[in-house]
Amino acid sequence: MPIDVDALVLNEPGSLTLETRRCLEPGPDDVIVAPRAVGICGSDLHLYREGRIGDSVVRAPLVLGHEAAGLVAAVGSAVDDLRVGERVIVEPGLACGRCRLCTLGRYNLCSNVSFLGIPPTDGLMAGLVRVPRRWIHRLPDSLTDAEGAMIEPFAVGLQAVEEAGVGPGQTVAILGAGPIGLMILQAARVRGAAAIISIDLAEPALAMARRLGATEAINPRERDAAAVVRDIASADGADVVIEAVGAAPTIRQTLDLVRRGGIITLVGIASEQTVPLNVNQIVRRGIQVRSTFRYAHQHPTAISLVAQRRVDLLTPITHRFPFREAVDGFRFVDEHKSEVVKGVIEFAPA
Amino acid sequence: MPIDVDALVLNEPGSLTLETRRCLEPGPDDVIVAPRAVGICGSDLHLYREGRIGDSVVRAPLVLGHEAAGLVAAVGSAVDDLRVGERVIVEPGLACGRCRLCTLGRYNLCSNVSFLGIPPTDGLMAGLVRVPRRWIHRLPDSLTDAEGAMIEPFAVGLQAVEEAGVGPGQTVAILGAGPIGLMILQAARVRGAAAIISIDLAEPALAMARRLGATEAINPRERDAAAVVRDIASADGADVVIEAVGAAPTIRQTLDLVRRGGIITLVGIASEQTVPLNVNQIVRRGIQVRSTFRYAHQHPTAISLVAQRRVDLLTPITHRFPFREAVDGFRFVDEHKSEVVKGVIEFAPA
Amino acid sequence: MPIDVDALVLNEPGSLTLETRRCLEPGPDDVIVAPRAVGICGSDLHLYREGRIGDSVVRAPLVLGHEAAGLVAAVGSAVDDLRVGERVIVEPGLACGRCRLCTLGRYNLCSNVSFLGIPPTDGLMAGLVRVPRRWIHRLPDSLTDAEGAMIEPFAVGLQAVEEAGVGPGQTVAILGAGPIGLMILQAARVRGAAAIISIDLAEPALAMARRLGATEAINPRERDAAAVVRDIASADGADVVIEAVGAAPTIRQTLDLVRRGGIITLVGIASEQTVPLNVNQIVRRGIQVRSTFRYAHQHPTAISLVAQRRVDLLTPITHRFPFREAVDGFRFVDEHKSEVVKGVIEFAPA
Amino acid sequence: MPIDVDALVLNEPGSLTLETRRCLEPGPDDVIVAPRAVGICGSDLHLYREGRIGDSVVRAPLVLGHEAAGLVAAVGSAVDDLRVGERVIVEPGLACGRCRLCTLGRYNLCSNVSFLGIPPTDGLMAGLVRVPRRWIHRLPDSLTDAEGAMIEPFAVGLQAVEEAGVGPGQTVAILGAGPIGLMILQAARVRGAAAIISIDLAEPALAMARRLGATEAINPRERDAAAVVRDIASADGADVVIEAVGAAPTIRQTLDLVRRGGIITLVGIASEQTVPLNVNQIVRRGIQVRSTFRYAHQHPTAISLVAQRRVDLLTPITHRFPFREAVDGFRFVDEHKSEVVKGVIEFAPA
Questions:
Q1: By the 8 A CB rule, do D181 and D175 touch?
Q2: Using the beta-carbon criterion (under 8 Å), do A103 and D104 form an inter-chain contact?
Q3: What is the ipTM of this complex?
C-alpha cells in the first residue's frame, strides 16, 4: 500500500466508468475495508442522472457508494480491536466530533461532515477504501453481506421513527414505499405501531410493503388515502405521518393525513426547494413538523434487530449486479425504476 | 336572575353596539362573573374588521371578549370553594373534558371546545357572564384587574416557550412585538433565555420590547435581522425562533433565523392559508417546526409569576377605555394600530 | 333491576365465600357488565392471605376481582355508544377526573380513585357489576374472554416499559417472571428491545419466560444474573432494569444490573416498607429510579396489540376455574404458587 | 517550559503544603493556564480531612483544586483560537470523548474521565496548569476572577435543575443551603420556579439563601419542613425536591416533601453508602428519583447567565485567601464550616 484498485467513478451526469484509483495507506486510527456488497441508493441515482443531490453538486470525478459491507483488509497502528479478515460495515458520515452538535451527540447534523460518496468525498464502490475506525461496525456472522449493505438505509428508518416518537398502539402513515419507505415501515413495526399504512404509486412497491407487514398499502390513484387512514386510525387522522418521497404533493398531503396534535416527519429531500404549506392547519391543529436527516447512533441497533430477525432486509433486494458490471447495473436500475425495489452491487471474492 | 345586562355585541364587520343581553341562571357547577377589566385582543380586532378569524366566522350577533378579570357575582349549588365577591379570572376555552386529547391533558386541542368570544360562543364583554367553575381561577389581591385581564395572553406566551423548549442560555428570536410577542418575550426570560431578539416593523412595539428586556429589538427595514441574530446567537442562527405575526414573509423568515437542529414555533395565525416553505432546509438542517394553539394548564403558573413580579403585564397596557365607551375604544384601537400596544376595557364599580 | 347476583366475597383473611349481592341500577352514564372471565391477580392473593395489600386493608366484606372481560347487560340512559350484548373489558381504576393529576392525563396517580376489588371498593367477581361508561372498552371478536381478562395486567406491562423508555436495541433485565413480569417481557419486545433477560427463582416461570421470547431466563440460584447481564448487554450493565417482584433483595439488585446512565423502574410493591439502597451508586453512575403504578391510557393499545397477535396473553394462563368453584380455585392457586403462572375464573354462559 | 511552579499539595489527610511542581510543555491541543482564583469545594475539604471522597482515595501526593479562573499563559501548536493573556475558566472533567456516553453527549458519566483535583489527577491550585483546549472556556471581561471560579459549582446547579425538569410555576424544595444548594437555588430561579424552599441547619447558610431569593429558608430544628412545604406548595408536597446535603436523613426526607408524581433529584454524595428508603412510596405515589453527577454542556450557559446578572455568584463568597496562605486558608475553612459559606484562593498578579 498505497495500492491501485478499481472504482466506480461518476465523471459527469450519466457517465459512469470503472477506473483505477489509489487507496492510501491507513493513518493510525484508520481501517482499510474491502467492500463485498454496496447498495445502490436513490441519492446515487440522483447523482448519476443529474450530477447533484440537493446542494451537493458533482464538480470533479466522484467514486459513488455509501451503503457498504466488507472485510477488514488492513488496520492502522492504533487500531487494536479489529483484525484483518473481520466482517464489517461502514457508517459513511464522517462527522468532525468537535462541533457543538457533535459533542451533543447529534452528529448527523455536523456541518463539517464528509459523507462518503456524496460530493466532494469519494465513496465505497471501490476495491479498497480507507475509513476511520470510529465509523466501522462489526458485522455478526448471521448477517449476509447484502444485509450488511442494507444496515445504512435501515438506520435512516430507525432514525425517522425515533424522531417521530412512534410507539405501541400508534397509527403511522408512510408516504412512499421505496427502499427508505420500506425501512421506515419495518422500523415502525419494531417500535410497536398498531397500524401502518403505506402509500405509493408503484404497484411493486406496494406489493413489497404488504409483504413486509403494512396494514394497508394504498395506491392513491385507486383509493383515497385520507379516507383509508381515517377509517383505520381515527376520524381525525393518523398519529404519525412520515414523508419519504420528497415531492411537493406528498409533503402537502401530510397535513391531510395527520390527526390533531399529531406528528409529521419529513425524510425525503424535495426536488422543489419550496413547497406551499397550510401553516394555519399546523397552528390550529397543534401539529409538529419534524425532520430526519441521516442518523446518529442507530447502526448498532440496526445490526442487532437484523440479527434477531425482527426485520427483513433481504426481501427488498430485488436485483444484484457484480461489481465488474456495475455500470450496466446502474443503467438498468435507472431505466427500470418502478420495477427495481433495491439493487445491490456485489464484489467477487478476493 | 336571569338578569338583563349590557353587552358589547358585534353585529357585522365594523358594527359594534352596546346592547341588552340576558345572563342565565347558574347551573350547579357554574359561576356568574361580573367582569372588571377585559383586554382587547388582536383576534377581537380581526373579528371587528373582517367578521372572521381563521375558520371562525361571525354568522350571528356575537358578544366579544375573552381576556377577563372580575368578581364572583353568584355561584351554582355545587360550587363550594368560591364565594360571592371574590376576585377571579376566566380561562375562556371551555373544553369538553371527555375527548381523547382532553383526557390526555392537551385540552387546548379539544375539537369540541366552546371558546368564549369566538363565534358562535358569546364572550366576556358584558355586565355578567356565566362560566363553569372549572374555568375560573382565583386572582390574588396583589394583582390589579388589568393585570388579571392580561393573564390570558401571558398564558399564550408561556405555552409558546414551553412548546419551544426554551431553556437557560438559549438564544430566542421572536418575530412580532405586539401584545403576544411581548408576552412570549417575557415568558422566554422566565425560562432563562440568554438573549432575546425581538423583530417588528412598529417603533412603539420595539421600544416596548426593549423596556421589557429584549436583548435587541430590530426593525428589519433598518437592520438585517438574520445578521443581528447570527451576531448575537451563533453563526448558525438562534436556538429557537417564534413566529407571532401570522404573515407569510415572517413565517418564511423563521428558516433563515434558526440554527441547525433548532426549533421553530408558530403562534400567529396567517392571513394567507398557504405559505411556501423551504422544506429541504427543514430536512437538511434537522429543524423542528412546532406550533402553539392557545394553552393548557398555564393560568396558575401565569398568576404566580405575576404575583412574584417576575414579569410585567401592566407596562404593555397603553390604553384603557370605560365599558360605556367600548364602541369608541374599539374604533380608536383599530385606527391607531401601530400606536396602541394593548388596550383594556374597564368596568365601573357596581 | 336492582337484581341479586352471586359474588365472591372476602370476609376475612383466608375466608372466601360465594354470597348474594345486589347489583344497583345503572346511573345515566353507567354500564352493567356481566363478567365472563376474571383473572386472579397477585394482589387478590395478597388480600386473600393477609387481608391487606400495602396500605389497603380489608375492613369490611369485599368482592374481589379487577381483571375482567364480559358482556354488556344494560346501559344507562345517557350511554348511546354501547349496546346490550356487546363484549367489553373493564378498566378498574375509577379516577375522579377533576384533580390536577387527572386533568394532566396522569389518572393512575389520582388520589381520589376508587379501584374495583381493592378495599373499600367491591370488585368484578360477581354475576353483574356496575361501571361508569368511561372505564369500559370494547373487546374485538378476535380476542377470547380470557384474553380480555389479561388486558389489565398487560396494561401494567405497557406502562412499565413506557415509563422506562424502552426502545429498539436496548437490553432490558426484568426481575420476576410472574404474570406481571411476563407482561413486561412481552411489552418490552413490542417496543423493540434487543435482548431481554428474565430473572426468577421458579422454574415454571422461567420456562414460560423462554416460551414468550426472553433472550435469557436465569435462576440466580444457578447462575450469576449480573454476570449474564454484563455478558449479553455490556460490561457496564443493562440499559433498563425493571423490578416486578417487590422484595428488598431484588430491589437492591437493580443497582447491580443497570449500566451507567441507565434506568431502573420499580413495579413491585415491596412487603418491606423500607429497603436499604446504595444511593451513592445512583448519583455517581447517573441512574434514574422511576416507578410504575397501574396505568393510564394503555387499554386501547393493549387490545390492538393482542388483536394483531403481537403478543400472547393466553399462554401464561395455566389454570382456569368455573365461577361456582372460585373458592376452591383461590385455595388451589394460593397453595400451588410456583406451579400456577396465571389463573382465571370463568363464568358459565347465561 | 517545562517550568517549576508552586502548587498546593495534599500529602495525607490533614497535611497540606505548598510545594514545587513541574508544569509540562503543552501538547499541540493544550493550553497552559495561570490560575487567578480557585474555589475551595466541599469535596476538597473531604479530601483534606479524610483523604478520600466516595471511592476516590488519595494514594499519592495530590494537587487540589477544580474550580478555577485564570489567564492563558501559553498555547499548543494547534490552538489557533486562544491567545496568551486571555481570561479563561477551566472545566475540570477531562472526559475521553470516545466512549458511548461521551458520543451520546453525556460526558459527565464518562467512566474514563480524569477529573482535575480528584485522585489520581492533579488539580488547579498551582502557578501554572496544563489543560486540553476542549475544556477551556473564555471568560467575558464583565466577570471577575472570583466569579469565574464559581462557574463550576454553578454548572452543578444548572445540571441539577435541568435533570429535575424544573420549570415555570413549580415549587422546589432544596435540602442543603451550602455552596451547591445555593447554586441550585439560583438555577431554579433562572428556570422560573414559583417558590423555592431552602432547608438547612446552619443559620448563615439560611440567611444567604434568603438573600439569594429563597421564598422560605427553614431550619428544621425550628419548623417542620414538610408542613412549610405543604403550606407553600400544595397539600401533597413540592413538585421537585433536590437533595444537596448527602446524608441519610435528608435523603430519606425527600420522600416526605415530594408530591405524588413529583421528581426527586439527588446531588449530594452520602457519607453512608446505603440509605433505607421507603420504596413503596416511590411506587404508589409515582415518584421519580433522578440524580445529577457533575455536569455536561453547562459552562457556556453558566457564563452567559452571570454576564447578564441573572444570578449572583459573588455574594456566596464569604472568605478569600491569598495563594501563599492557602494552607492556613484550608485550615480556617475546615475549622469554621458553619461560618464560611464559600472560600476562594486568590493568586497574586504575575
A1: yes
A2: no
A3: 0.95
pLDDT in tens, A125-164: 999 999 999 999 999 999 999 999 999 999 999 999 999 9
Q: C93 falls in which pLDDT band (50, 70, 90)?
A: very high
Report which residue type is found at A171: T
- Write the burial class of residue A287 (CB in 10 Å: 0-12 exposed, 13-18 middle, 19+ buried): buried
At residue D186, the pLDDT reads 98
Q: Is residue C276 predicted with pLDDT exceeding 60?
A: yes
Cis preceding linkage at B61, omega within 30: no
Output the CA–CA distances (angstroms, integers) from residue A132 to A28, A69, B266, D267, in the order listed.
9, 15, 41, 38
CA distance C64 to C343: 14
Please state, for a pLDDT cut of 70, what percent of chain D lies above it.
Answer: 99
Asked if A207 has any chain B CB less than 8 Å from its own CB, the reply is no
Say if CB A32 and CB A129 are below 8 A apart: yes
Contact indicator for C106, C67 with CB cutoff of 8 Å = no
In this complex, is the C-beta atom of B300 within 8 Å of any C-beta atom belonging to chain C? no
Q: For CA atoms B178, B181, B187, B192, give the dihedral sign.
A: negative
3-state SS class at B137:
strand
Q: Tens digit of pLDDT for each residue in A254-304?
A: 999 999 999 999 999 887 779 999 999 999 999 999 999 999 999 999 999
R_g (Cα) of chain D, nearest Å: 20
Whether chain B has a CB inside 8 Å of the CB on A28: the answer is no
D179-190 and D203-211 helices cross at what angle (nearest 10)? 20
Give the distance from CA C148 to its chain's centroid. 12
Please name which of D223, D214, D219 lies closest in space to residue D316, comparing C-alpha atoms: D214
- In terms of Cβ atoms closer than 10 Å to its own Cβ (0-12, 13-18, 19+), residue A18 is middle
Chain A stretch 60-119, residues whose beta carbon is closer than 8 A to a beta carbon of chain B: 100-101, 106, 108-109, 111
Question: Taking Cα atoms as reference points, which of D92, D132, D131 lies closest to residue D115?
Answer: D92
Helix (H) or strand (E) holding A102: helix A100-103
Q: Return the exposure string of C100-135: e unless at least 16 CB atoms fall within 10 Å of the residue's CB, then b.
A: bbbbbbbbbbbeebebbbbbebbbbbbbbbbbbbeb
Pairing between strand B30-40 and B342-346? antiparallel
- Secondary element (H or E) of residue D280: helix D279-284
Give the bridge partners for D276, in sequence order: C276
The whole-angstrom distance between B268's CA and the closest CA on chain A is: 8
DSSP string, D313-341: SSTTEEEEEEGGGHHHHHHHHHHTTTT-S
Describe chain A by its helix, strand, coil percentages, rounded to 5: 30, 30, 40
